[in-house]
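INTERNAL AUDIT FORM
Audit reference: QA-55
Scope: verify that the stored structure record matches its stored sequence.
Auditor: D.O.
Record contents follow.
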Amino acid sequence: MPSRSRPRSAAGSVGADRRTRPGMGACTTRRTPRVVLAVGSLAAGLSLAATAWLWSTLAHLPPLDLAAANARSTVVLDRAGTLLRPFATADGRWRLPLEPDAVYPRFLAMLTAYEDRRFRAHPGVDARALLRAAGQWLAAGRIVSGASTLSMQVARLVEPRGERSLNAKLRQIARAIDLERRLGKDGVLRLYLALAPYGGPVEGLRAASLAYFGREPARLTLAEAALLVALPQAPEGRRPDRFPDAARRARDRVLDIAAARGVVPAAEANAAKAEPVPHGRKPFPMLGPHAAEAALAQEPGRAVHRLTLDARLQARLEPLVAERAAALGPGLSAALLVIDNATGEVRAQVGSAGYLDATRSGAIDMTGALRSPGSALKPFVYAMAFESGLAHPETLIEDRPSRFGASYAPENFDLTFQGTVTARRALQLSLNVPAVELMERVGPARFIARLRASGAGIVLPKDAAPGLPVALGGLGITLADLARLYAGLARGGEVPGLRRRLDVPAEAAVLPRIAEPVAAWYVADTLRGTPPPESALPNRIAYKTGTSYGYRDAWAVGFDRRTTVAVWLGRPDGAGVPGLVGRIAAAPLLFDAFARLGGDPEPVPRPRDALVATTSTLPPPLRSLRRDGGPADRLRIAYPPDGARIDLGVEGGTPAGLALKAHGGTLPLTWLVGGLPVTESDRRQAEWQPDGAGFVRISVLDATGASDSVMVRIE
């Protein structure tokens, strides 16, 4: 049957298509501007709507509470700002304060290159990154890349929310913009550096840098910085102490991205990949732990404590003390204190042989424990004798078997006697009989009163009155107080108060005196000649040792013009340790500690009015010390009375002379003012012409060596 219509050939069909395409193309072209316009209008509308929503959200969101985010670990710093010891926050987190300028610069460059390339340009949210992420999501049906900025991450850290929803993300965007508006870029970055999670209780870059590498963020290597950039994205899954392989892969990816974006040269990035990752966490710094705890107890509300300690010196001395205590046997502890003589600042404080060593009671700060000082107080007996005119370093004194009172007969440590020696030699050899002889002349009650007036917390045995045994250590004193007294000798007799904090203003106060300047120098010059321990150089520092009864305590205290170092060794429970002797156990530690101070010791300068003489050239009453003839004719000053205030008209011009009167004693009498002879008389009356106002010590000696002394104020 013939067809009613002719079928189209393939060619005709193609031709028809070709005929119609131009028309269709023209139509599409005509519609393109309208489509573009529609899309642009839609985008503009969406942008306006988003902007309106953001401003509405910001207006209705409650104020962001930054109190919890601003909480930091309490830190204790040394005099230069070096971290001595941090303390965890109340909820057990390590979150240390850190400023952006204290960070390795390449860390910040890698951080922004990896996390937020346009951090400095956007207002808290990166619109370009959002559009890119949204387009990828629409095209792939899943999230391909994120658009979170550092500001948005900080918002999530400041206001954490468990849900992952569009509303939560929009709220995060609003918070990010609000944070940037309130804090600025540096403020947001500061929060990120403090809050970024690094696994477990470690938060913030500084805590992580110390925990994983044992160093401050400013001293990181390129590889270390790259690892710390990578960890916050998955802190638990990339912890190098648990998953070192995952940590390495994450670090290397950061290095690759940093190299691709021109932050670091590719060669350096490849070299950094060869560095190993840490396989464990390091302990946080714990220098001067006893001093740090005392600072917190003193001001518990302060976030940053600044002490006078020197972290580098502290780090050198702590292991030295621990090593020496361990070498002496189990159960022993040790303590050491370093004082700046000019200021009284404590430069190092080692309270025990190991803060965490329970076998040595390391948590007890032995610098503040009451212990018996043994012979360590003898220099102050001599100082009082020198200033009272009883003796001079070259005065001859007897070291022979002697009895004081009914039953007290002291012996030397080695059970021998030296016979006739100078006071200088007696002190250098720490002879007991001469020290007790001088204590009898000075008076135990007066000696204890002088120590207490100098600020030392002296404790006597219960129900015991001051007696002659205090010259040999029959009392209790702390290492800190003993160190202060010796620092007073280095300062011409003026005892400094110990200053331990730089963040508390020093109190202006009239400093007490342990001795007059000349007497203090006599003692310092004498102690500088004390024979040193084995393998130590002589005549470098003035020092004295002490050993308490029963070998319970070993002491050594030394000083030069600038520094005083005090050392104690013993058991915190007070048990005796056979063989624990100050000269053998404590003195070597003292000399080693001085060697770690750096520089050569400087002697204490000599006062202009010091009497430098030999025994034969001394005034006759000072050439030898002989025992008094008895109380009936005991020498004493009748005028002026002790403690008197005498108006001689000093302020009105030439002052009048001061009459001096004495009772008892054997003529001739020698009168001394400030430890220096001013007149010799065959009578019991004399006159002295003062050269100014102030306190003066007036002493008198008779031909037998007996003496008396008073302190008066001239006005």
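Auditor finding: record pair retrieved intact. The chain has 18 helices and 20 strands.
Action required: none
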